[in-house]
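Methods — Computational structure assignment.
A single polypeptide chain was analysed. Its primary sequence is given first, followed by the predicted tertiary structure written as structure tokens.
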Amino acid sequence: MARNPTKPLLRALAGEALVPPPWWLMRQAGRYLPEYRAVRSQARNFIELCLSPTLATELTLQPVRRFGMGAAILFSDILLLPYALGQALDYREGEGPVLDPITDRAGLDRLRKAGALKRLDAIFETVRRVQRALDQQVALIGFAGAPWTVATYMVEGGTSRDFRRVKGWAYRDRRGFGGLIELLTETTIELLSAQLAAGAEVVQLFESWAGVLPEAEFVRWVIEPTAAIVAEVKKRYPGCPVIGFPRGAGILYERYAVETGIDAVAMDTTLPAGFACAKLGSRVALQGNLDPVLLLTGGQALEQAVAELRRSFAGMPWIFNLGHGVLPDTPPDHVAQLASLLAAPAPS
């Protein structure tokens, strides 16, 4: 689709420093909003919620409608891709996602690439509906989990503390594990392309578990697949901005920014602003990185932290965001306070 280059988010991604900065929040649609909880009750489970265009469209629009963010991000989940590939998936209260673990080539062979994207048609219909409903100055962000992160859930069977299964397979059988990463790379390209064809204007790759790998493995399982995805998506959709979020990567953020071809890097809470400006800001746009607990806290602590971030990234192409997602018990009034703080004149 044609993209409106005057939208503030797209201007920042193209390298323009804006005052006030454009902003959106990771997990901006979620349990902290009472209107989310009302819609959530209409679906039998989380998968049904994500695959209902009517409900997912409403959830995507809710935070933008209430707080006036500069972007809407598609309401979906990174694990719908393994679900579409045929891996059993459930979301359990208090436990999170639970998958039937894939730990070897035999498990990999049971996945079904053929027709996987067809099983996610409802997501692309949601994108079309959201795009039609958005204000002309609000951008629409599509997303996917990056291959390494999605693989961790597929192999571990859910979240993990030590990642011993997935790292063990990668160390023990590089070629076999590489087959899983290759499959996820190919299908992630198709997933993002379908979102862009439906009306998304920006895509973000969530590499939530980038920080658990040593450098050599980070290059092989994070940088190389991401670079392949970015190159192919940009070949199909020239000019489409791609944001990468390698959470926990530390000093490897620099290699990630240089070697993947992304347009912007989303910074986690721990990445120092000075490092980001010095090592990343001349290469890519920056996004982030308020501690979500400060948004939970609100008041003067939030005001001071936002002012400091605005001073730190002044003159840089920067999108305000959190360093991770909105916490479920965040008061909506604190997000309203944030909106007011970001709309105010730049702090001295």
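Note: The first strand starts at residue 71 and ends at 73.
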